[in-house]
Hints:
Blueprint: H1 2-31, H2 36-43, H3 45-58, H4 63-82, H5 85-106, H6 113-123, H7 127-136, H8 140-170, H9 173-217
Amino acid sequence: MTNNTSGLGSLLQTLGVEIAVPLGVYYGLHSLGADDFTALALAGVFPLARTLYQFARTRTINGLALVVLVTNVVGMLLTFVSGDARMMIAKDSLGSGFIGIVVLISAFTAQPIMTKALRPFLTHGQADHEEAWERLRSNRRFDTVVRRSSYIWGIGFMLESAARVIGAFTLPVSTMVWLSTVIFVGSFAVIMLVAGASAKEAGGMVAEEARRPALVAA
C-alpha cells in the first residue's frame, strides 16, 4: 500500500510539472502579450529542466526517461529553427508517439520497458512477492501477461500521438494548447485502466506464488 501510494504521489507530481506548470506559463505569458511560439517555448523549459535536474542529481536515467529527454531536446531545436508554434505543439505529440514506438518495440525484446515500471505495483515492495516475481520470470504465461503491458502502453501512446498531431495542424493554436493536454490526460487515464486490468492476472500469479513456500512448509 505504501509503495503504491508513493508511486501515485510521484505520478501526480510528474503530471503537475509536465502539464499544469507549462499550461500556467503559456496562458500567463499569452495574457501578457507574448506570441504563441514564445509562450510555448518558455513553457516547455520546465519539463526539460526537471529531466536534466533529476539526471544531474542521481546520475542515473532509465530507458524511457532517456527517450523523453532526447525527444524534448530534438523537438526544441526543430521548433526554434522553424519558429512555428504549431510545430511546438506537434513536438510533444510526436514525442509521445516516438515513445510509444520504442515501448512497443521493447515488448519484443528480452527487457520490455514497462515491465520494470509494472513490478512495484505487483510486488508492493514485499520481500516474499519480490522473490515470487523472480521465480515467475521463467514462467512463459507470466512473461506473456507482463509483456502485454508494453503492448498496451506502446499502442496507446501511438494512437494518442496521432490524434494530437492531427489537431496541432488543423485546429487553432490557442485551442490545441489545452485540448492537447485533455487528449493526453484522457488517453493516459484510459491506457492506465486498460493496462491495470490486463495486469490483474500477473498480480494474481505473483500473490499465489508468494504463498506457495508457506503452503509447502505447512
